[in-house]
Amino acid sequence: MENELAQRIRSRLEAVGKSAAAASLEAGLGRSAVTDILSGNSGSPRLTTLEKLADVLECSLAYLVGASDAADPDDRTTAPSPQPRAQKGSHRGRRANRCVSRGGHF
Q1: From CA 81, how far away is CA 77, in angstroms rounded?
Q2: For 51-99, what is each residue's pLDDT tens digit?
């Protein structure tokens, strides 16, 4: 029985009209990388490998790993990752200190 990752990769290969070897090479992977995943010879592909494949297969990483049913990488059906917050006033403080030390205004 084929695992979900293999099913999703196979589906996307068909959707974008690429062979497993072509997708592997386009992703900058070894020629047999996708074939190995599809056949189960690659037990647990690295995250970076899956990220590269998602790009070539024109889908989201979330779709490939089964966290989303939407193949479209622009579909945000899953919660977006939190963005790091900038420290409040950190830029202004440094700029103000630099300008004051030169005798100027900011």
Answers
A1: 12
A2: 999 999 999 999 999 999 888 777 544 444 444 555 555 444 444 444 4
Residue 32 amino acid letter: S
Distances in Å between the Cα of 74 and the Cα atoms of 5, 6, 34, 55, 68 are 20, 22, 23, 12, 12
∠ CA 53-56-57, rounded to 5°: 80
User: pLDDT for 19-58, tens place per residue?
Assistant: 999 999 999 999 999 999 999 998 789 999 999 999 999 9
